[in-house]
Protein: Sulfate Transporter CysZ
Amino acid sequence: METPLQNIHKSWKDFLSWKMLFLNLGPVFLGVLFWGVILFHFGGNMVRIIEGFLPTSWDHYAHTNGLLPAMFLLAIKMFTYVLLLLSVLMLSLIGNLFISLFYTPVVICYLHSHDYTNLPLENFGDFMGCIQHFLKQFAYLCMFLVVCAPLYFIPIIGVFVSLIPHYFFFKNTISFDIGSSIYNQETYREVLRDYKVPHHKISIMAYLFSLIPIFNFFATLLQTIILARFFLDIKAQKSNVSQI
Structure:
C-alpha cells in the first residue's frame, strides 16, 4: 500500500492531467464567481455582523483615545477579518464538496482506467443516497458550530474548535461518496473500521489543501483523487490477498 506522500505525489500528477483540469473548470468558475459577488456586495456587512458578536466592552475600549486602544482596535479588525476568511473557507469547502458529488464517479473511472484496470468495482446506494448523507453530515456540522459558537471568539482556540467539525464533515462526506462507488456496503464498513488510523492520516493531509486561500477553490478535485486512490489501493491490496 502506498504511503500518504506517494499517494499525494501520484494524485498531483493526475490532478494536472488535461482531463482533470478540464473537469475542474466548472466548479472553480462557479466558486470564484459566487464568492466574488458575495464578498464584493456584502463583505462590509459581513464584517459588521461578526463585530456585533464581540463583547461591547471591547468596542468601547477600542474607540477611546490613546495608543493602546488604537492598537487594540487594529487587533479587533484583524481578528474579524481572520474569522471572515475562515468562514469563507468553510463555506467554499461545503459548496465544493456538494459539487464534487456530481464528478466523483468520473474521477473514479479515470483512475480505474489508468492504474486499476483489473480491479473489479462495486457500489451501493445511489446519487440520492449521497445527497442524503451530505445533508445529514451538514446538519451535524451546523449543530456543532452553533453549540460551540461562544468559543470562536477566543483567539487561536476558536480557530481550532471551528476546524475540527469542519474536518469531520469533509472526511465523512467525501469518503462516503467515494467508498459507495468502489465497495459494497459491508466491505466499506470493514475498511473504515480496519483502516481507521491510515484513513485519518490521509484525510488530514488532504484536508490541509482546503486551508490554502485561493487554491481551496481548486483543491476539492485533488482531495477527491487523493481519497479515491486511498480506497482503491486498499481494494487492490485486499484483492491480491484473496488471490493468494
Remarks:
- Residues 67-115 form the longest helix (49 residues).
